[in-house]
Design brief:
The protein has about 650 residues and is an alpha/beta fold. It is built from 21 helices and 27 strands. It is globular. This is Alpha-galactosidase.
Length: about 650
């Protein structure tokens, strides 16, 4: 017992501070799962062929990234209790399968259960949670779906918390998908446990039906939709209401498939495909890769839609989106075609979750039909004929009112050069250093005027237009900060470029990446500096600052999916470890460190090179660090250079 006591204390301590991995499922996860089409009839060839199909058919490019093996992959446990894959179905082993899926730029998911047996009668994880999580990490698993069969006598909170802690202890970021069927209202308690949780029993490929079995039921699309009432306030980035996997392509009509897909996107449910991708017709592929609908699903604001108007068979749903946009869906649930004649000006659409209002009486919104591409605006009534079991999906962007137009003209004049450099891109009007909405700089600061900021942006555009670079710095200025001699000596072996200027915050950096032709660069390595600007202008909390960092990382991953990102945490610590600024920095660094996945994103705190052994910053280097001198930049460059060389290999 004495020997066990330290281990027990360590386990209790780890559990007390355990948390799910941050930085995953910031938008609803997208991928594929084997269950809906294949149930237990699975093997490694199916998984490999599906991964190939995801790439070949453009699903990966559309945003789908997880290839998830559901139930029945299991073999027996070995003599030490470690789970093995079925040697007949998966003769190469799960590690080799994960390597293959990763080689395609995709991620592999796996399935287990809180009970001693899974729903398919295979070995569950009860009593083996830490062993299984460790095994999954060693195999290279990226996603864990955790079911609720054989759960007799278990506390849902306890069972799912145990596996969350086990995944954290295993040390590999794995998205945790809770398949608890909504029996214990997980939306009320699972925000810090899972990245998503099922809200209902299993789905079935029908429009409005319910199949009752001895101990459970399966539900059609409308039955699941109706069970979402009151749940939207619990959903958001990193914690989603899961309406179960998609049945698109599994036997419903094309209209039903489109409506099903659009509803799941509107309600921010994970988009996990359940059809056989190897034999998917082109009509189904077009639905599943529709860019406008996927953009609604993946909107970074992460607010779930709600039904704002119910006319019986016709229902109206709205979703507020980032950048002041909206998505509106009109659903025809009925068995007959319906005529739509909606007067935008007759309704003020108020959202009590986001506190946003869509008021077409005081502003005009332009809209685009996600399926047909047809465009219009809210100045006229919305007229259409909706087929039965179909949905009209619109994306709305505010057009300037008279007062807005005047303000926009003044701001556009200040940023005319930038607008010209980013032809066709709309300039956001709510700029400033504090926003997480992509926006250009709108204010002068003592160390840099708005005009100089604009000039440097134009210089960045000119660099980007020349094409690819080896090494891209984001978030700190080369031309207005780095000592050029030191920079050239340290990094001159590579072709370099810079996006991000001293004094910028998340919104400015995002705007520069989106509007500065950054997609032309294709660097091997991006160095993203986590600077004082993450705090300085808004007195942001570490959590708010981290949200901004994640947005920039997500944008970089979208721009450069095969590029490595080095998170360069060099922030002013202050002389004392007890200083409020130092403590905020340490808290932010803990959060940012969690983005390190060892494959695409790497984290290093180079500020440590300025500290003494007792944690204080010596007076000798304080000035060099806080107001970088040549000496300070040399310390910084010397600290970074070995990692840059390694990651550039």
């Amino acid at each position: 017992m004495k020997r066990l006591l330290p281990l027990l204390l360590a386990a209790v301590s780890a559990s007390a501070y355990a948390q799910k991995f941050d930085g995953l499922a910031e938008t609803p996860q997208m991928g594929w799962n084997s269950w809906n089409s294949f149930a237990c009839d699975i093997n490694e060839k199916l998984i490999r062929d599906t991964a190939d199909s995801m790439v070949k058919l453009g699903l990966k490019d559309a945003g789908y990234q997880y290839v998830n093996i559901d139930d029945c992959w299991h073999g027996a446990r070995d003599a030490n209790g470690f789970i093995q894959a079925d040697p007949q179905r998966f003769p190469s082993g799960t590690k080799a399968l994960a390597d293959y899926v990763h080689s395609k730029g995709l991620k592999l998911g796996i399935y287990s259960d809180v009970g001693a047996t899974t729903c398919g009668g295979r070995p569950g994880s009860r009593g083996h949670e830490y062993q299984d999580a460790k095994t999954y990490a060693a195999w290279g698993i990226d996603y864990v779906k955790y079911d609720w069969c054989d759960s007799k006598g278990l506390s849902a909170v306890g069972a799912y918390t145990t596996m969350r802690d086990a995944i954290q202890a295993a040390g590999r970021p794995m998205l945790f998908s809770m398949c608890e069927w909504g029996d214990n209202k997980p939306w009320e308690w699972a925000k810090d446990i899972g990245h998503s949780w099922r809200t209902t029993g299993d789905i079935y490929p029908c429009w409005d039906c319910e199949l009752s079995h001895d101990s459970f039921a399966r539900y059609g699309v409308m039955r699941i939709l109706d069970r979402q009432t009151g749940l939207r306030k619990y959903s958001g980035p990193g914690h989603w209401n899961d309406m179960d996997m998609l049945e698109v392509g599994n036997g419903m009509t094309e209209d039903e498939d489109r409506a099903h897909f659009a509803l799941w996107a509107m309600l921010a449910s994970p988009l996990i495909l359940g059809n056989d991708l190897r034999s998917m017709p082109e009509s189904t592929r077009r639905i599943l890769t529709n860019k406008d609908v996927i953009a609604i699903s993946q909107d970074k604001l992460g607010i779930q839609a709600w039904k704002f108007l119910d006319e019986g068979k016709l229902q109206y749903w709205a979703r507020p989106m980032a950048n002041g946009e909206w998505a509106v869906l009109v659903l025809n649930r009925g068995e007959q075609a319906a005529t739509l004649n909606y007067d935008w000006k007759a309704h003020e659409i108020n959202d009590d979750v986001s506190k946003r209002t869509l008021d077409a009486r005081t502003a005009v919104y332009k809209w685009r039909d996600a399926w047909s591409g047809k465009a219009g605006d809210t100045g006229a009534k919305l007229e259409a004929k909706l087929a039965p079991h179909s949905a009209l999906v619109l994306r709305l962007t505010a057009a300037a009112s008279d007062g807005q137009a005047g303000r926009a003209a003044g701001q556009a004049a200040a940023g005319a050069a930038g607008a010209a450099g980013a032809a066709g891109q709309a300039v956001a009007l709510d700029g400033g250093a504090c926003s997480v909405t992509p926006a250009p700089r709108q204010r002068d600061y003592p160390w840099m005027s708005r005009e100089r900021w604009q000039q440097m942006f134009n210089e960045d555009v000119a660099v980007a237009d020349k094409g690819g670079v080896d090494l891209l710095f984001v978030g700190d200025s080369i031309t207005e900060g780095w000592n050029q001699e030191i920079f050239t000596r340290s990094f001159g072996a590579w072709k370099t470029a810079n996006f991000g200027i001293g004094g910028d915050h998340t919104g400015n950096v995002l705007w520069r990446l989106q509007n500065g032709h950054a997609d032309k660069l294709h660097p091997k390595l991006v160095v993203l500096t986590i600077g004082v600007n993450n705090f300085g202008f808004c007195d942001a909390t570490p959590e708010q600052a981290f949200s901004g960092v994640k947005l920039v990382v997500a944008q970089l991953r979208k721009l450069y999916p095969d590029t490595r990102i080095l998170l360069n945490a060099i922030l002013p610590y202050g002389q004392s470890p007890q200083s409020p600024q130092r403590q905020k920095v340490v808290a932010l660094n803990r959060l940012v460190a969690g983005l390190n996945d060892g494959q695409h994103v790497f984290y290093q705190d180079y500020g440590l090179h300025f500290l003494q052994s007792n944690g204080d910053m010596s007076a000798e280097v304080m000035g060099d660090f806080l107001h970088p001198t040549a000496k300070g930049y040399q310390i910084w460059a010397d600290a970074m250079l070995p990692d840059v060389r390694k990651l550039m290999e």
